C-alpha cells in the first residue's frame, strides 16, 4: 500500500509557508499521485492551462484558479472534483464552462466573473446545492430556462455587466434567493411573478438604460426587500405597490424620467423615503377607489387567496363607500381608511407589507 501525504491547504504563491510542504512532496518515498490537498490556491500564476492530475482530486473542496490566462477547463479534471464546494474561476479568458460542471453535486459557491462566457451549460442545473453564483462581466445573452427549477438553494445571483435582455420566468421559483443583481444589462422587463421571491432583500436592476421602462406591480409584495436600485433606466412611473414595502430602507431612482412620483421628491441625497412610500400608497388607495376591480386583483393578492393564505371576506360595500367618501373628503387618515377597507384577514397582509402602523 503506497504511502500518502495529506495537506489541508496548498498555496503555491506563498513560498516560505509552503517550503515544508514542497519538500515533503518532492521527497523520494512519496509519489505525487498520493498527495491529498483540501484547499488548492493557484491564483495569479499566469497559467494558460492546468494539470492537477498529480493530486487526489476527490478530496479538494476549495479550488482557486482566478487571475490566470486560462481559455478552457479540462472536462475530465472537473468531473473528478466530486467533493468541491468552492470553485473560483474569475478573471481568466474562458469562453465556456465544461459540461462536466454538472458533476459537482456539492458545489456551493461558483465565481466565473470577468471572463468571456456567452452561455451557461444546461448541466449547471445539476449543481443543486449551489448557494452563490457570480457571473458578472461576461457576455451572457441568456440564462438557462430551467435555472429556477433546479437551483433551489441559490441565495445570491449576480449577473451584472452582461447582455441579458430578460430573466427566465423560472427565476421566480428561487424562493431562497436573497440577492439579485442584474444591473448593466439590456433587460426589457422583470418576471411578473417576482413576488414569489419572498426572501429577496436586495434587488438591483439599474443601468439597463433605455431598455427597462416599467416594473411589475408585484414588486410591492416582496415583503423582505430592503434595497431596490432601479436607477438609470427609462422608467416614468414607479408601481404604487412600492408604497407597501415596509422593510425598504434604500430606493435609488436617479437617472430616470420619473413622473410618478415627482422627481423632485428625490431632490437630495437624504430624501424622505417614508414620504415617497406614503405618496405611492395614497395613490394606490385612490386608484382602488376609482377602479371597479376587486381589492385582491388590484393589489396582486389573488394568488395568496388562491393558496388559501388569506380570507376573501371583505367589509360591506356600503361601509366601504362611506369610509371611501370620508377618506377622500379628508375625514379619515390613510391608516384609518385602509384599516376599515380590508377585512381582518386581509389586514394581516397589509400590516406585514406596509410602511405605516395601524391604529
TrEMBL record:
Positions of region (Disordered): 1-29
Protein name: Uncharacterized protein
Positions with biased composition (Basic and acidic residues): 1-12
Gene3D superfamilies per UniProt: Ribonuclease Inhibitor
InterPro entries: Leu-rich_rpt (IPR001611), Leu-rich_rpt_typical-subtyp (IPR003591), LRR_dom_sf (IPR032675), LRR_domain-containing (IPR050216)
Species of provenance: Stephania cephalantha
Domain of life (superkingdom): Eukaryota
Alphabetical keyword list: Leucine-rich repeat, Repeat
This protein's GO CC annotations: cytoplasm
Keyword Glycoprotein among record annotations: no
Amino acid at each position: 500500500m503506497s504511502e500518502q501525504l495529506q495537506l489541508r491547504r496548498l498555496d503555491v504563491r506563498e513560498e516560505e509557508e509552503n517550503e515544508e510542504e514542497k519538500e515533503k512532496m518532492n521527497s523520494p518515498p512519496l509519489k505525487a499521485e498520493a498527495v491529498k490537498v483540501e484547499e488548492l490556491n493557484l491564483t495569479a500564476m499566469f497559467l494558460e492551462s492546468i494539470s492537477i492530475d498529480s493530486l487526489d482530486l476527490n478530496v479538494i473542496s476549495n479550488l482557486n484558479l482566478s487571475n490566470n490566462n486560462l481559455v478552457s477547463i479540462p472536462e475530465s479534471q472537473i468531473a473528478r472534483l466530486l467533493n468541491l464546494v468552492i470553485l473560483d474561476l474569475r478573471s481568466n479568458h474562458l469562453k465556456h464552462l465544461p459540461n462536466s460542471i454538472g458533476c459537482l453535486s456539492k458545489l456551493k459557491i461558483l465565481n466565473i466573473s470577468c471572463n468571456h462566457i456567452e452561455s451557461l451549460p444546461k448541466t449547471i442545473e445539476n449543481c443543486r446545492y449551489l448557494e452563490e453564483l457570480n457571473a458578472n462581466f461576461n457576455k451572457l445573452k441568456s440564462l438557462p430556462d430551467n435555472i429556477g427549477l433546479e437551483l433551489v438553494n441559490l441565495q445570491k445571483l449576480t449577473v451584472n455587466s452582461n447582455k441579458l435582455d430578460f430573466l427566465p420566468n423560472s427565476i421566480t421559483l428561487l424562493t431562497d434567493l436573497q440577492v439579485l443583481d442584474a444591473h448593466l444589462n439590456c433587460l426589457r422587463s422583470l418576471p411578473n411573478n417576482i413576488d414569489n421571491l419572498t426572501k429577496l432583500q436586495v434587488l438591483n436592476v439599474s443601468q439597463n438604460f433605455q431598455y427597462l421602462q416599467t416594473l411589475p406591480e408585484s414588486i410591492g409584495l416582496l415583503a423582505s426587500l430592503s434595497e431596490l436600485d432601479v436607477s438609470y433606466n427609462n422608467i416614468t412611473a414607479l408601481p404604487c405597490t412600492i408604497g407597501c414595502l415596509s422593510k425598504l430602507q434604500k430606493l435609488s431612482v436617479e437617472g430616470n424620467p420619473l413622473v410618478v412620483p415627482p422627481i423632485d421628491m428625490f431632490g437630495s441625497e437624504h430624501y424622505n423615503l417614508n414620504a415617497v412610500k406614503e405618496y405611492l400608497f395614497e395613490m394606490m388607495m385612490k386608484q382602488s377607489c376609482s377602479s371597479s376591480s376587486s381589492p385582491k386583483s388590484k393589489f396582486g393578492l389573488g394568488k395568496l387567496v388562491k393558496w388559501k393564505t388569506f380570507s376573501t371576506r371583505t367589509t360591506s360595500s356600503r361601509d366601504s363607500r362611506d369610509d371611501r367618501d370620508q377618506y377622500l373628503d379628508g375625514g379619515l387618515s390613510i391608516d384609518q381608511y385602509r384599516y376599515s377597507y380590508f377585512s381582518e384577514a386581509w389586514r394581516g397582509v397589509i400590516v406585514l407589507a406596509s410602511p405605516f402602523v395601524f391604529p
